[in-house]
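User: Okay, second chain of the day. Same drill as before: sequence in, structure tokens out.
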Amino acid sequence: MPKVEDLIQLGFSLQKAGKYEDAEHAYQEALSQDNDNAEIYNLMGVLKLQQNDVISAVHMAELAVEKNPNAYFYETLFQTYIRAGIYKQIVAREHEVMEKFPDDFSLLFNLALAHKNLRHIPEAIKYYDRALRINPASYDAWFNLSHLYSVEGETKNAVSALKICQKIRPHDNDTDYFLSLALMRVKDYKHGLKLFENRLCRETAFALLNKSYPNKARKDNLWDGKNIKNKTLLVYYEAGFGDVIMFSRYLPLVKQKCRKLIFYCQKPLSPLFKINKQLGIDEIVDKYIPEDQIDFDYHIPLLSLPYVLKLSGEKVFAHSDGYLHADKTMVEEYRKKYFDNNKLKIGIKWQGNTYYDQDRVIPSTAFIPLMEVENTQFYSLQTFEGAEDIKDLNNIVDIGKDLLDFSQTAAALSNLDLVICNDTSLAHLAGAMGIPCWIVLPYEVNWRWHTDLSVCDWYDSVRLFRQHKLNDWNGVFEDVKAEMLRRIEMCNSR
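Assistant: Same drill. Structure tokens below.
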């Protein structure tokens, strides 16, 4: 009969060769001789992970640790927990691990990762710090730590962590991109915008345009700020509606640089931009046009404009107050249809595109305390996804069901006294139109709102309200209601 050690070695060789069933047979035969051998259970745990049998992998790894709680077996166990998505099980073993292996980098890293995924931010930061004292060259630890610093609003620490990541992995696009966000959040646009050119949506937008117009949209005619006074420039959208509205502020500056400006935008935005002649757009494109029917000399994705224009400091925010407006006739039509009353008219929206970010979704019921304020009329501007949640609200006018494009939304907004919404395109539209807007932010704040949340640098009419702790919508809406009552009292006392 083969010895246990020989069976383990045979199983390990078969496992390395990808012969998993034969390897398992060898391990099972070894276990029949030595049922308390922790090494076999550990190898079986790894084997089951390779076979994508995560439940069995967890069981085997737990048996290994039970029979011999050494650091290597704990590492296998934590990997099975991570694959199973049961991070609470890692945290549950926190004290035993710290008692036995307080200086094991891998286990400290996994504890940090578990806390990170459970949104225990201070604990995750603590364990990444401890892990980095042991291995200060760990890119993953520094990178994850930078994200946690950003969540906590410790943006200068996030910048420092990402600069260390740059030294560990020079010329890494992901590092440069996230460093750009951290730099822009602290308003260092001089350095941030250059690194922002590493964003994925820029490359995606350029690749799509190049596929549509391979003979005209080439790398060699990607506008880099050179003199194009007598040339035609195509500016094309990237990212979401809110980004396009926000960065459209730069189109008048671009128009001063070229003879003809063509703007390629999403179809729902097209009617709005056609109304706003002051942007200097000569031609708007909102669908594919054959290459022989479109003519331009240079092209550039929209979000690259402030970098190419060499804007920094306060010039990045430059715009005329209310740089977008609605069609006056349409505004009057909406007034007659929905807004012919003497109440304080407040528009709300609770959800944007959940593909990008779930944290920015506000439960519609969070608005109920605001709707209890006397002499107010609330209007839902929620469209498409999330619109069904209006059923949880009473005494609200549903305008969202009639809004098919942003020109209609702009007309509705023009009749409102105030907009209260999540971080979404509606907020950018209200801000761009100079309409009072309160944006209710999650705990993890997007880079564009910076670190001083008492003001909004991008829009004079916007005020920002941030959660005090993760997922606490009730607390931030108490702040919103208090401010709302204070404003109403001020108006009544005049």
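The mean pLDDT is 93.

User: Thanks, on to the next one.
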